[in-house]
Each structure stands twice: as C-alpha cells, then as structure tokens.
C-alpha cells in the first residue's frame, strides 16, 4: 500500500481542463463580434476589379450595398445574361433605387445621414452603361458618397 | 438515504460545456467573413435639372482623359497606356519644369474624365485608380516636403492643408454612347 501511495505522489497530475470552456468562450465571443453575416444572397456574379488606392469603409451600419452584375446561372433563363442590379436580395431596376435608399436611411440616426455611403459592388467585366444609370439615379436621390468596391491589387513581380 | 445524499453533493457536470462552446465557435468561424469592404471613395456631383453652365478653362489647365468602348485611352489628344497614366498625371499637375503646356499651378489643374457607355467597368476603375493614385503620391510627397512626415500619418488639419495645396478635381462628363453595352 505504501508503495502505491508514493508512486501517486510522484506522478504528474492531470492538467486541469476546467478553464478550457473559458478560453473557448473568449474565442467564441471574438468571432461573434467580428462576424458579419452576409445579409443578402447574391443573385448576380460579382468579381470586383483590383485597385491599389483603397479606402476602408468604417461603419457598416452607414453603408448600403448595390450589386451590379450578370445573373448567376440559376436565374439566367429568367433574367438573361445582361447585367442587372440587385438591391437587398431581389433583382431591381434603376427606378427602385430611391426607395431602397430611403428604407436604409430611416434605420440610421438623423445626425448621421450625411455620412451614409453607397457601396457599389460591381462586376469588373460589365460595361459602364448600367453603372452610369445607377450613378445618375444616386445623384438625383442626393446620395453622393459612393464607394466603388474593389479588391486589393496583388503587386506584380517585376 | 446514502444515495440521495450523494446526489445532493454532485455538481452539474460542466465538461460538456467546452464541446458546446466549440460547436458555437466552429459555427461562427465558418460564417465569418472578415469585413473586407474596401474601395475607391468618390463624391458625386449633385444633380441639377438646370442646364450646366459652361465654364471656360485654359486648355493648358485641363487634363482630359477619354476612355472609349474599346477600352483605349486618349489623354490630351494622344493615345496612352494605363501604365503610363499615373506618372503623366503627376507631371501635369505638379509641372516641375514649368512647361508651357502643362498646368499653371496644382490648384488650377482639372482632370476631366469621360467614358463611353460601352467602356468596361474594370478599365474605368483602373483609370480612376491611377488618377487617384497620382494625387495620393503627390500628397505624400507634399506632406514629406512640408512637414517631414508622410501624409497618412498627419492629423486631419494638416491633411486638409496638403489637400488644399493640391486639390483633387476630377470632373466626369456625361458618357458617350457609341459602344455596345452588354
């Protein structure tokens, strides 16, 4: 018996896992905070062009997103392959933009209305025509702060 | 009796807590898209129904950039590659050698950008990026020269001072519609 007892004393005790949940919870909270769930399922293909002079959009709640691109394959039989506008999770036309902007505006405190930015997420492979129409509509609606969404350019090796 | 006493002493087993937390963690890991919304910030001119007043500028102060439906560039009447645009723009604005045909001073320089409805959006943004980049580089140089510190490290007041010395004016004309849209 004495033999057993001495052996147990020498052996290293098991590492306590009692704090493991806490550690995991910290990680969990971190990811919960930084997560931004994609609010709209994209119905158009968008591969934004590359650029180097980028500005980061700071406040997510002050940004509304306008997507422009060709419909994805699933919708091509219905909507064709010409570029379309997507607002929220629906296809839309230029005429729907003012209402969309207004809907977003009411969710923002009035003091911050001036800093609302429209993020244009536009596919790099479409032509300017539809983008121009959207820009004109934004100007008519008084939404002048616009962000052309782009990816960071990967520096080419020289 | 003995049994029930034992039960009373028992704590809730918390070892599954880690598993639950792990599950949640993995869920958020998967759904996370780290905010990567970046882009070129522009300020559009306000819309007005009245016909535009035609302003006269000296031709030497206007840097006209035309992008056609073939995605070719015509800068001040000459063809140019996008790769050359940035340096050319910088030279036009700053005019370090006081050339007669370039801008009188950076405050008077105006960039006029015009595209076609058939222009590729990618090309358009690339051109815009170069023009913006030219100004960013000029601001950086100006800040270094004036305050000995890079532009991005300046306070907002000094940033504004730099920007006022080299104001960014990109005027966009109504696009032509020669090319085919698709």
How would you explain this protein's 3D organization?
The complex is a heterodimer of chains A (158) and B (182). With 158 residues, chain A is α/β, with parallel strands linked by helices. Chain A has helices at residues 2-10, 20-34, 73-79, 97-106, 128-140, and strands at residues 44-45, 50-51, 55-56, 63-71, 84-87, 90-92, 117-122, 145-149, 151-152. In chain A, strands 1, 4, 5, 6, 7 and 8 form a six-stranded mixed beta sheet that branches. In chain A, strands 2-9 form a two-stranded parallel ribbon. Chain B has helices at 2-9, 15-31, 82-94, 121-147, 156-165, and strands at residues 38-43, 62-67, 73-75, 78-80, 110-115, 170-172. The longest helix of chain B is centred in the last third of the chain and has 27 residues, at 121-147. The interface between A and B is large, with 58 and 49 residues. Strand 8 (145-149) of chain A pairs antiparallel with strand 1 of chain B, so a sheet runs across the interface.
The dominant shape of chain A is elongated
> Could you say which structural class the secondary elements and strand pairing of chain A correspond to?
alpha/beta
- Mass-distribution shape of chain B: elongated
Cα Rg of chain A: 26 Å
Number of helices of chain A: 5
Percent range for β-strand residues of chain B: 5-15%
Count, helices of chain B: 5
Sequence of strands across the biggest β-sheet of chain B? 4-3-2-5-6
Taking the alpha carbons of the first and last residues of chain A, their distance comes to 76 Å
Estimate percent helicity of chain B.
Answer: 40-55%
Task: Report the sheet with the most strands of chain B, covering strand number, pairing sense and barrel closure.
Answer: 5 strands, mixed
Multimeric state: heterodimer
Give the tally of β-strands of chain A: 9
> Could you give a short account of the major beta sheet of chain A?
6 strands, mixed
For the residues shown, what is the average pLDDT of chain B? 82
- Main interface: chain pair and counts: A-B, 58 and 49 residues
Helix content of chain A: 25-40%
What integer is the average pLDDT of chain A?
84
Named CATH topology of the domain at 44-152 in chain A? Nucleotidyltransferase, domain 5
Radius of gyration of chain B: 28 Å
Q: H/E element string of chain A?
A: HHEEEEHEEHEHEE
